[in-house]
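#structure-requests
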Amino acid sequence: MAAETAVSLHQHTERVKAARPNHRGALRQTGTTLATTFKMAPTATAPNVVVPEAPKSGFKAALPKVHSESIIKPTKTVYGDWRDDFFRDGFVVLPNVLSAEKADYYRGKLLNWITGFNLGLDLEDESTWTAEHLPVSFKSMFLNYCAPHERFMWEARCEPGVMDPFAKLYGTDELLVSFDSFNIGLPRRKDLTFQPWPHCDQSPDRVGLACVQGILNLYNSGPQDGGLIVMKGSAPLFEEFFEQLPKEKRFSSPHVHSDFYLFNEEQVKWFEDRGCTQYKVEAKPGDLILWDSRTMHHAAFPMGNEIRTVIYTCFAPASQCSAEDLEKKQALFHRFEGTTHWPNCNMFGQGKAKKGGKRESTEVCPLERDEPIEKPIVTEQIKKLAGLVPY
């Protein structure tokens, strides 16, 4: 596996701030450019952003077991909207896709979910922000306990302001959604050893953009509040980077699928030498962050006063899912099980949380569930997004 790395973030930052607009296509260009030095780690309901209805799909279904080519082939012309920023920088922040009231609703659902385990977690008492008071998670992502299928998760996925930008990028509204989960990051936790893991989520065998990832942001994410860090401008260099690597070094191992690559110190510098910069994405409640799966990214540990609350959202054209993967996706839905962020492939279930959070354990966490606390109301829209019925 590529070496794990550690990063020190200097106080000197370059901050670009703009007003929070409400008109269509306007972006908040707010974030923190990070001056970074890598060294080896000692251990290892109506939206305010309106997007026009997308045309019907012209994509053909991907064949089983074969990596499809790019599902987004942008033209060389200027779009004149946020897509220009997305394709240039590899990410974009779309402001106000949810109202403040809707964002607060979803944030409340997340926080009620985590305190509902009755393990002594007190959101007003930082001394309780430790593993013994929390259900099992992976990097503060709660992947088990049927969490990806809670009713509020499906409500969020079906928000027009969340779905429509994906439809605009893909050129189709016939979409599948991933059974991804959410992140609740308690700041300044002293029981964690945190280190960055700069990576991309696309196989070098894929040519062009194959997946758009998303975060529905539900908190005030400032410079110290934890959250997404991207290597700005790295996505357009994806093919060039892997072409200069020997074939035997183009994949990170072990990993359950090939759509993942962990970068080491030297490789991070390769991108920086070509003008890319590490950038802490800042966002407000109700903003949607989208990024290209080819973009190098990781996360900042929350050190401010905000509890990080985000929902991961990822959509892909339904035509890009093979019959084999569709069958797996349907089975995972009926088991209320989570998957990777890929909506159309890599159908690996997250399974049950293990006792003590130890993946190698054969004992299931006694707090595990066989169904969500509030099961989703399975509408016709949800059936299509989950791949249960065709478009």
